[in-house]
C-alpha cells in the first residue's frame, strides 16, 4: 500500500523499509516475519508517514508494546548484539 501511495504521489517520495538479514542476523528464514513484527511492536522500527511535512504515526503498539530485548534476542549470535554493545544500545534506545 505504501509503495503504491509513493508511486502515485506527485513529486519525490521516499519509502524506507526494514528487511531482516537472515545471514547476518543469524535467524531462520521462517523467523523473518516474527523479527520484523518485533521490530515494530518494540518501537525499534516505527511505522509512519510524513505527508506535506506532517508526521503521521500509522501504527501505535501501545497495548501490544514489547520490550526492545524481545526484538534483539533472536539476533544474539551477531556481533552487533554482543553483551557490551547490547547494553549501550538499550540505554540509548530507552533514553530516546
Characterization of the model:
- It is a single chain.
- This protein is 36% helix and 8% strand.
- It has 96 residues and is mainly alpha-helical.
- It has one domain (2-95).
- It has a two-stranded antiparallel sheet.
- The chain is globular.
- The model has no long low-confidence stretch (mean pLDDT 81).
State the gist of this model.
This protein is mainly alpha-helical.
From the alpha carbons, calculate the radius of gyration and give it in angstroms.
15 Å
| Approximate shape | globular
What summary fits the major beta sheet?
2 strands, antiparallel
Mean pLDDT: 81
**Segments where pLDDT lies below 50 for 5+ residues?**
none
Quickly count the domains.
1
Topology:
Layout: H1 2-8, H2 32-41, E1 48-51, E2 54-57, H3 68-72, H4 83-95
Antiparallel strand pairs: 1-2
Please tag this protein with its features.
single chain, 96 residues, mainly alpha, 4 helices
Amino acid at each position: 500500500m505504501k509503495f503504491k501511495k509513493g508511486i502515485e504521489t506527485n513529486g519525490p517520495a521516499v519509502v524506507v523499509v526494514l528487511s531482516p538479514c537472515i545471514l547476518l542476523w543469524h535467524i531462520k528464514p521462517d523467523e523473518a516475519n516474527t523479527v520484523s513484527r518485533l521490530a515494530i511492536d518494540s518501537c525499534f522500527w516505527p511505522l509512519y508517514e510524513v505527508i506535506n511535512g506532517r508526521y503521521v504515526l500509522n501504527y501505535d503498539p501501545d497495548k501490544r508494546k514489547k520490550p526492545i530485548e524481545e526484538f534483539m534476542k533472536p539476533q544474539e549470535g551477531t556481533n552487533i548484539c554482543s553483551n557490551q554493545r547490547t547494553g549501550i544500545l538499550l540505554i540509548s534506545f530507552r533514553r530516546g
